[in-house]
Amino acid sequence: MSAPDPGEQALLVVIDPVARRVDGESVRIARDVLRGGAATKICLPEGPEEVERALARRGRRRPVVIGDDRALLHVVTVLYRRRELAEVPVSVVPVGPLTAVSLARTLGVPLGPVAAARAVLDGVERPLDLLVDDSGGVVLGGLWIPGGGEGPGGGTDAPAGPAGPNGSAEAGEGGAEAVDPAGAGPGPGCATAEGVPGGGGEGHQPWWSPAARTARSALTLLTGPAAGGRAAVPGCTRLRVEADGELITDLDRPVTRVSLTAADGGLAELAVHTHDAGHPLRSRARRVTVSGPAFRYRADNVLAGPVRRRTWTAAPAGWRLTLPR
């Protein structure tokens, strides 16, 4: 853990175009605070490719994201793929609706533009664990796989979520946009009408967003077919879950939800909610593999899939985030 040296600070400030659109005043305040405390280069990208070029040419500048969780995830993923993430501290000034900055809040970043910008200038770098999947995707907070089946009020329309920055076959054609502030999805057997809880706020549409679909369409995508001709169980899906090679549950035991988060000690915390048990099956492992009929999952604030198999590996101290002292 080390504090940035104010005398040597040089920042690359990447301002998410969504943040400029939904809350230009907070963006201006954060930018002015950062300019007052460090040498800054401002990047105003209009697309993800421009972010990648700016990061590649940043020199010794520390990257600072002014934007929501998706903008942060995009920058982190680019640095990971450049094999620079573990060595480059990342900072963020959250701007956007509460549901769109829930990850930053969970990580301990202040939500006010002044407090967050001052944390960038005066804070400390803290190493944090993360999860990496076998397609090169990065998970900073956690992920969950919902069970199938339609909840009450299935006809409600909602904004669709964009494809995320992790490079996998993600939302693509749509899906509701945000998780709840605590980063948790619905409980066992209670997939909502939108397929996910919460909403992204009016006008909250990242630059890589495809055309929106209704929430009913998103739910249809989340609901996979029954495995091997077995009868479907409402609110459930059939998955094979393994933790460090140990079988946790198989296709013959319907599950209502699977969740995975980075835990202390460089391990992943796994919880599998099954249809026939009152308590989840819990395990800690370095590597977790989920397979079965095509399934979708929500990693941080991004809907991903469909995939038939995905492996997540815990990466201890895989990145560094600047946080208040």
UniProtKB/TrEMBL annotation:
Domain DAGKc residue range list: 6-137
InterPro entries the UniProt entry points to: ATP-NAD_kinase_N, Diacylglycerol_kinase_cat_dom, NAD/diacylglycerol_kinase_sf
Low complexity composition bias: residue spans: 157-195
Region (Disordered): 149-207
Protein name: DAGKc domain-containing protein
Native source organism of the sequence: Streptomyces nondiastaticus
